[in-house]
């Protein structure tokens, strides 16, 4: 029995299933989590299916979370999507269930759970959920809500199919999801829209980016600037890809100061592998898209120096 069949068998054994995702969700986190929930609701109407986690931070147009009582976890199956490391799971009650399944597309550095399905070659966790459906489509039912959510997750994690993780299979999955009844043009607009404050921040990014001779770039967003623009950390996700359109830029970091004083570090690359660097600074992720943390300006400088070294080696 392959792992996707094993996951379905375990799902069929439980009356209550609670699905979690990572903190500070992006479209793929919500898409994979709630897309899976909608497939299971459609397929098993007698089961109790919950989506659990903290605030969805501007992604309410995709879905919102359920209120899940502690007692619901007793004897329940818990599934976590799109979350590489257990400490990043939103709502730590995920550990209160009877069994735990991990479904993800990040490198499997933290293989938590009783059953693990990880495919780092997939563009997104939403693509993985679509594959799970296809493997078991004699027993699972896709609906319009699930298709919309999975499509949103794929679009979000592929940068509208621009990133190297986009494969022919990714496009085939997206094309099939588009055959369901939802407005793709409207959804794409909702995914792309940014408030005026973020648009102004984009201007700041372009005016204040530092790029060295090897294409290593950085932008620092101090808390005072965030306050001035009226922006919270989650909104900075919209500007992370901006340095990538500059031809001289090879790899870059955006350092976002948090109210507590440390920096959240968003790392991206056009070639140099950056996830090992992220792991050295309390983070991780994909080879070309990762996140990390810096406790102070000194660690910010260290991380940027490492990016510079990676770019220099890459250029040789």
From TrEMBL:
Molecular function terms, GO-annotated? nucleic acid binding
Any idea where the DDH domain is? Answer: 17-154
The UniProt entry, under Pfam families, shows: DHH (PF01368), DHHA1 (PF02272)
Q: Which domain of life is it from?
A: Bacteria
Q: Where is the DHHA1 domain?
A: 235-312
InterPro entries recorded for this chain? DDH_dom, DHH_sf, DHHA1_dom, Oligoribo/pAp-PDE_c-di-AMP_PDE
Checking PANTHER family in the record gives:
BIFUNCTIONAL OLIGORIBONUCLEASE AND PAP PHOSPHATASE NRNA
Protein known as? DHH family protein
Q: In the record, what lineage is assigned to the organism producing the protein?
A: Bacteria, Bacillati, Bacillota, Bacilli, Lactobacillales
């Amino acid at each position: 029995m392959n792992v996707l069949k094993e996951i379905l068998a375990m799902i069929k054994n439980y009356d209550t299933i609670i699905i979690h995702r990572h903190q500070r969700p992006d479209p793929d986190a919500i898409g994979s989590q709630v897309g899976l929930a909608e497939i299971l609701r459609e397929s098993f109407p007698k089961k109790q299916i919950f989506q659990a986690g903290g605030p969805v931070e501007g992604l309410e147009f995709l879905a919102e979370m359920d209120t899940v009582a502690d007692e619901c976890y007793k004897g329940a199956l818990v599934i976590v999507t799109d979350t590489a490391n257990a400490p990043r799971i939103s709502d730590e009650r995920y550990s209160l269930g009877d069994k735990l399944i991990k479904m993800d597309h990040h490198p499997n550095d933290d293989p938590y759970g009783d059953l693990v399905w990880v495919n780092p070659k997939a563009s997104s966790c939403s693509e993985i959920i679509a594959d799970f459906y296809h493997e078991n489509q004699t027993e699972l039912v896709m609906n319009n809500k699930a298709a919309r959510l999975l499509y949103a997750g794929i679009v979000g994690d592929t940068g509208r199919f621009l990133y190297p993780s986009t494969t022919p299979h990714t496009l085939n999955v997206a094309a099939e999801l588009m055959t369901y009844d939802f407005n793709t043009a409207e959804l794409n607009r909702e995914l792309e829209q940014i408030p005026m404050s973020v648009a102004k921040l984009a201007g700041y990014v372009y005016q204040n980016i530092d790029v060295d001779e090897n294409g290593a770039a950085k932008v620092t967003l101090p808390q005072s600037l965030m306050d001035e623009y009226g922006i919270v950390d989650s909104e900075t996700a919209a500007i992370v890809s901006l340095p990538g359109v500059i031809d001289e830029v090879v790899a870059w970091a955006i350092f976002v100061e948090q109210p507590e004083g440390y920096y959240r570090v968003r790392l991206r690359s056009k070639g140099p592998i950056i996830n090992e660097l992220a792991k050295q600074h309390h983070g991780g992720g994909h080879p070309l898209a990762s996140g990390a943390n810096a406790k102070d300006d000194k660690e910010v400088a260290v991380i940027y120096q490492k990016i510079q070294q990676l770019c220099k080696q890459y250029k040789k």
